[in-house]
Amino acid sequence: MQQVLSPDPGYCLIKRGGVRLFMDCYNAAAESMESSFDSFATIPVENGGRRIAVLADIKETGKANAELHRKVGQYVLEHPIDMLFCFGESAGIIADEVRAAGTIPVYHTKDEAELEALLSENITEADVVLFKGSRGMALERFVDRIFGTWFY
Known about the structure:
Elements: E1 12-16, E2 19-24, H1 30-41, E3 51-56, H2 65-77, E4 83-87, H3 91-101, E5 106-109, H4 112-122, E6 128-132, H5 140-147
Parallel strand pairs: 2-6, 3-4, 3-6, 4-5
Antiparallel strand pairs: 1-2
């Protein structure tokens, strides 16, 4: 796959093939997650595409870690998300919260290779994909590997 120099992964919307990638990987807090979901919901989905969220840990949460990640799970359930991928230890709390509702497919892993494989197998043309997580989780590296960008 050809490597291309890409815009700032902190916050951008790019198109690779038929897939639109909404990159919001610079930082994460419960409030910024909700804001990202609000913006993500305004991106039209066409030709049978889906809204897919790829979420990673919120870092530096201290004692509020579980509560904040559960809150993010509730935000997912309040927005039009068709499939969820969670990456990292604490992101498992998000996955558990959404999985308990039983409304959308949910995947959780702490393994980089497994996440890359899951995304490669499940993202299709016409999908719109949100990548959101703390800077330390470096979600853009998965976009680079799968879509040939050069964020990381």
